[in-house]
Every structure is written in structure tokens, then in C-alpha cells.
Amino acid sequence: MFAIGGIGGGSDVEAYDFHAAKWNQMPSLPSRRYDLGAATLNGKVYAIGGEDGRGNILETVDVFDPFAQNWASAPNMKYKREYFGVGVSDGKIYVIGGWSGSQRLNSVEMFDGERWTDIGQGMNKKRWGVAAGVLNGNIYAVGGYDGKVLKTVEKMNPATGVWGSVASMNTATHAHCVAVLDGKLYAIGGYDGGVLKSVEIYDPDLDRWTFVADLNNPREYAGAGTGIKSMSLVVGLVVLSIPPTSTIHKPGYGRSCRQKCLQAMLSHYFECFSNK
């Protein structure tokens, strides 16, 4: 599991070894970035967009090769964005919504390993602070902010690029995270005027959101990653699980103390959820 960038470290990258139960320092990003998105594709780790700490919104992308243990530049996105959602479907990375530095975005870009392409007409709503998840091949844009905090959810079929509405969450939220576990979509924490500890689960067969057990602590701008039968949550970081069959879909803002998070991973800064 990778923790990438953030205000506390900027270019720092660490990997958590679940067998050894410790964090290991990895090669740093070539450039500082936070409010970024991250994804795995073809065995490599992509750090996408975000902000550089000097007020510049980024369209740049860095890619890490775990075997060569180095970072390199990947093709830039077409648009600068931060606070966006990320999903991987059918060997392609999708970036969704976000903030350009001057406006909220509804646009969607797809990366196939070589180039970025605009997809469809974009979401029905402009959303920043949106979280994304991939479920049954469809990409879900969950919550976000368009001038008000949203509880609405949209779903896109990547084959058509067309977005449609599905059931809304019970609670409006943005700056939250989303993870997929056992064919269900989890919306975790976030902000609705106050920091949330609620967790909702979406069943695509029933088209319904249901509350499950709360987090132990309210969290915003967190990252979530899924393992084989459990889900981990780390506050304040972009968290990326490897191999690519594990997914995370929320850029981390890094607002909370990064070092505390790393040093106290077994306390309330690091939470694990199991549906068993």
C-alpha cells in the first residue's frame, strides 16, 4: 500500500508492508504535489495532477515502476485539476471532475497508457471534492460540491461515456473517499459543514444506500484502500493498494499530521474494516 505526497511531505512516498507491519521509504516524487489522484495501471503507480504547494494546479503526471524503483514523467492530462476522482476500468485510468483553479469541473479524461482522451460530455453536475469508484465495469461519481454539498451519485458506462443518475446517498458529503469491497461501494467520512464519521454502502442490485458502522473518528480528505477481504483507511494521504486488482479512488489533502499518521498506524489514525 502506497502513501503518496501530501502537504506534510510534498514529494514523499512510503509503502506499507502488511506482512512486516511497517512503512518503508520509497523514492520521492520528482515534484511536489498534493490534492492529487493516484492509480495503478499495468503494474505501475501513477500520481496525477494536484497542486504543487505554490498555488499552481497541475496537469502533470508521474509514474513509478516498482521493479526499476524509479519515477518518470508520463503524458500530461489535457486539463489542470485537483480534488478530482480517479477510477480504473478495463485497463484504463479515468479522472473525473475536480477544480481547475478557476472553476469546478464535470469533464472526464481517460488514459490508456499512452495518451489522454476526453470522454463523452462529462458528468451531469460539476463536482469537486468528488470521490469515484468502479463497480461492475461502471464508474461512479459520488457526492462532491457544486456550490453546495451533494448527496447525488452518477454512473457512467465507459463504453458509451454517458452518465446517468442512481440512488442518492443518505448524507451529502464531499472531501470523502470511496472504496469497493465484495461488489459494494462504500462512501466514507467527508465534510457536510462538519467532519463526518458516517459510512454508507451502495448495493447496485437494489440501487440503495445503507448506513453501516461509523468510523471511530470523523475524517475528511482521507484515502481508502481495499485488500482481499478488508478495507483500510488512512487519514490525510493518497493511499494506493497494489496489486492493481485493489483500488482506491480519493485524492488526499494531507491536512492532518502526516508523521503522526505513519507513526501511529495502529491507533485511531489507521482504521481497518472487515465485512466478515
Give the tags:
1 helix; four-stranded antiparallel beta sheet; Neuraminidase; 276 residues; 23 strands; 46% strand
Explain this structure to me?
The chain has 276 residues and is an all-beta fold. It has a single domain (2-274), classed as Kelch-type beta propeller (Neuraminidase). It is 2% helix and 46% strand. The protein contains one helix and 23 strands. A four-stranded antiparallel β-sheet has the order 3-2-1-22, with no helix packed on it. A hairpin with a 4-residue loop joins strand 14 and strand 15. The chain starts with a strand and ends with a strand. The model is unreliable at 233-270 (pLDDT under 50).
What is the rounded Rg? 17 Å
Mean pLDDT: 83
Percent strand equals over 45%
The rounded distance between the terminal residues' Cα atoms is 21 Å
Biggest sheet, spatial arrangement of strands: 3-2-1-22
Structural class by secondary-structure content: mainly beta
CATH top level is Mainly Beta
Overview in brief:
The protein has one helix spanning 258-263, and strands at 2-4, 13-17, 22-26, 37-41, 44-51, 57-65, 70-74, 85-89, 92-99, 104-111, 116-118, 131-135, 138-142, 153-157, 162-166, 177-181, 184-191, 195-203, 208-212, 223-226, 230-234, 238-240, 270-274.
Which SSEs are present, and which pair or pack?
Layout (H helix, E strand, L loop, with lengths): L1 E3 L8 E5 L4 E5 L10 E5 L2 E8 L5 E9 L4 E5 L10 E5 L2 E8 L4 E8 L4 E3 L12 E5 L2 E5 L10 E5 L4 E5 L10 E5 L2 E8 L3 E9 L4 E5 L10 E4 L3 E5 L3 E3 L17 H6 L6 E5 L2
